[in-house]
């Protein structure tokens, strides 16, 4: 391993260490000033907070594994099927040109069917119009104080996952960044909702046990007093659940903690898609959340690390921890290519050029959509999706004939 690679790793871990120290110091000062700490090193609320963070990261990581695995299997099936058709059709050398066009037609047909299935599922499935699009605008709106209906709808999660798999399998120029961000945010919202649900469940358990013991002859006030009489000696398990549900989990049912869990889930989804734990935190700070507390640094970093590790563990390679791959940096001999310090100016030039071209491209596409496509009856959403998919198939056919 060269010196500059070792320097990059050392700099990365030094930055993580500094961020962790700043976060822990800020959190300790906050607890001392507010008086929340009761003298113990770690309070029960902090423990519950970290447990919810890890669970949110695991849900995001496992969801990423499901989507990546399904997409890879779908693409492998399509490639294997088309390769078999090409082999059967090209046995005769005189029919080589015909065989290529036959496989191209099959390639277009499969891509159009998958793209149309994804568009139809997102557009016409009842009750989930929010499934259209990447999902990042909805997450950004919710975290900035705007109410988003059906944000934690289970049907929306299923439609989003299936639509993402079909879209990626159709070979269109789409990725999994937006859906994974929204799915991670959904995981955080679901955990916050489960906190309140568990509190109500334990309360009903205590009421039911008191009703069985004392009957229905007591008034509501007497029943509440008898519920409180169920102490630790009489029923330690129910007492422990009651303390945890009313003292810890119910604390996280408020809107502030809910937004924090959604922020952690969104960051974990972004980190899992690109394999960038620090990039997920910067994405949240720069683009998603307006209200970002300093005590969120360490939680987001740990959650992003857990989410990316889940995908790396699934693939069996700790160096392959991103859902989106940008290729391998190897030469013709198979040796890995390492970055050099002199490459940084070229990266800066590429970044500036990409930003300028991206801004103008967005303006052009927005203008064309508003003036031409939206007013045309031909370019309805489902039909427009089929048109884009067919044009992309033609581009793949004439730019790289070995795709089939």
UniProtKB/TrEMBL annotation:
Chief place where the protein resides: membrane
InterPro entries: Cl-channel/antiporter (IPR051280), Cl-channel_core (IPR014743), ClC (IPR001807)
Cellular compartments annotated: Membrane
TM segment ranges: 6-24, 50-70, 99-125, 180-203, 261-284, 296-314
Single GO molecular function: chloride transmembrane transporter activity
Topology relative to the membrane: Multi-pass membrane protein
GO-annotated cellular components: membrane
Keyword Transmembrane attributed: yes
Keywords: CBS domain, Membrane, Repeat, Transmembrane, Transmembrane helix
Protein name in UniProt: Uncharacterized protein
Record organism: Pseudo-nitzschia australis
